[in-house]
Amino acid sequence: MALCLRYGSGMDDPSKPLTERIIGAAIQVHRALGPGLLESAYEACLAYEFVKRGLRIEKQKPLPVVYGDVNLDCAYRLDFVVNDEVVVEVKSVERLTHVHDAQLISYLKLSKKRVGLLINFNVKWLVDEGIRRRVNDPK
Question: For a FRET experiment, which of 31, 39, 91, 96 has its CA 20 to 30 Å from that of 47?
């Protein structure tokens, strides 16, 4: 099975309204806290904001690696799975790199989820610098 990973706005994507709600929650947290805190602080506030907005969340969801017929518990954890549909990875780093993208893409493949958001709160302008949306399209 080949995978096609799209890097785009997702204008025709049915998950777009949900990702917009998630991004809205992240913007609210960023406006209140600003950059410079630990990832755990943003995660806690984002969880609160998700629940306040009526979103169903799973926090620190275990993610096994399936190799052949074996499930390997490699201690991978998804920061959030929202409405059983979107993987959200929270960061508080100087800048997002290809390693962060690769992590999200791997998590999408392993979890068999289609859409992921990578959110870096350690930036001045969250929307311009801190959010990446990825789509995993099995072909």
Answer: 96
